[in-house]
């Protein structure tokens, strides 16, 4: 019906040409936007704490770009990096990060900040571990087995830290009292609250969830519980498609004095969540 005497009418040819030009322009804009989009894998703690929501608008404004955040455990973040599914990572699993770099999957690892881990549990502290050092607290939990302990069980940085703490005591927890949740920190806190159980949490996520749960810190402030975060770029020699320039700029920005100062000033309900690593 659109063909007359073997030819397409002029108005229809004109319309199709305009549509073709529009699609080309849209594709060009889409490509340009993709070129200014950074894929960042981070731990759930930096997302749950609100820190990224506080910091990222400044970077987006400076770079006129988008930052797409994938909040997962450190173990999953490192897998994303190995597969080239992201441009850079912000994680808190030092041993795995060093291995990631040594095996050639990442480059330019830099310390960004730190907070610490705490043991939280019911306010009445049924296991009576409040005030004990971390080793004695875990030993008592494993010995009595009367109170449940919720493990993240997800190969995250927090889960790996917890396993290291048990292994240092030559304890391999198992049984009904030890629950492997296989989920993120926020959800684990909610589960521990529901079951009136104990768990290991980074301080930042606990503070962010404190108003939603009835758990309190029972063990804290031990050197073994320090929790450092590092930024790394995915190795562009393995994955040339990554946003090398934008990722480098982000890493530089994250450790720059102005951003480090903002990290140190970030508060949640008046409490500092992270300590900047540069010059500390």
TrEMBL record:
InterPro entries: ABC-Tungstate_binding (IPR052738), PBP_domain (IPR024370). Residues 31-256 form the PBP domain. This is Substrate-binding domain-containing protein. Residues 1-34 form the signal peptide. Keywords: Signal. Pfam families: PBP_like_2.
């Amino acid at each position: 019906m659109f063909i007359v005497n073997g030819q397409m009418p002029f108005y229809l040819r004109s319309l199709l040409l305009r549509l073709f030009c529009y699609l080309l322009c849209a594709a060009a804009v889409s490509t340009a936007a993709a070129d200014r989009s950074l894929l960042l894998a981070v731990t759930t703690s930096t997302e749950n704490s609100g820190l990224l929501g506080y910091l990222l608008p400044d970077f987006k404004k400076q770079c006129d770009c988008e930052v797409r955040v994938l909040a997962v455990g450190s173990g999953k973040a490192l897998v994303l990096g190995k597969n080239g599914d992201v441009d850079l990572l912000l994680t808190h699993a030092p041993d795995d990060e060093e291995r990631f770099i040594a095996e050639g999957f990442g480059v330019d690892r830099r310390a960004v900040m730190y907070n610490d881990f705490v043991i939280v549990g019911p306010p009445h502290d049924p296991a009576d571990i409040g005030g004990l050092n971390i080793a004695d607290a875990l030993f008592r939990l494993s010995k009595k087995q009367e109170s449940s302990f919720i493990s993240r069980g997800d190969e995250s940085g927090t889960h790996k830290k917890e396993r290291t703490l048990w292994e240092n005591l030559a304890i391999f927890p198992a049984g009904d009292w030890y629950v492997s949740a296989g989920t993120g920190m926020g959800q684990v806190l909610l589960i521990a609250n529901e079951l009136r159980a104990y768990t290991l949490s980074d301080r930042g996520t606990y503070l962010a969830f404190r108003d939603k749960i009835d758990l309190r810190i029972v063990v804290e402030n031990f050197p073994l519980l320090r929790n450092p975060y590092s930024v790394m770029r995915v190795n562009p020699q393995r994955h040339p498609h990554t946003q090398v320039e934008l990722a480098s700029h982000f890493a530089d920005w994250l450790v720059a004095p102005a951003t480090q100062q903002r990290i140190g000033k970030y508060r949640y309900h008046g409490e500092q969540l992270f300590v900047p690593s540069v010059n500390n």
